[in-house]
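FAQ: What does the model actually see?

It sees only this:
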Amino acid sequence: MFSKACEYGIKATLYIATQSLQDQRVNLRDIAGEINSPEAFTAKILQQLARSRIVDSVKGPYGGFQISRERIGAIKLSEIVSAIDGDNIYRGCALGLEQCNAQKPCPLHDKFVGIRNDLRKMLESTSLYELATGLEVGLTFLVRD
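And it is asked to produce this:
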């Protein structure tokens, strides 16, 4: 559903948020290790997230990535997805066909419209804080053991 970059972006943002809630800044190496992603790929994703003002990048020997507590509560999952994948998830064909649209629908088009609308609602109503605090209390895990 999401691109691999978007999956890593969500995981990275969640990890940064959980650490930020504990007043900790995290560096690229720690983030890449925690989400099991190559460092160079993670760096590109973090650049996109920083440009979109989802994460803050602090330079210097004590630098790293962080998100202010206020922003953690305000950021919606849809913002992270949009920063990495754009809005293609809301527009693309379920079968990946380029010519699929309302005038020339694929066999799944009408069924997928409802799923996309539900997905949009879920992404727009789920806050980063909600996800990060769920991770903090151990209800979910960022990576598999």
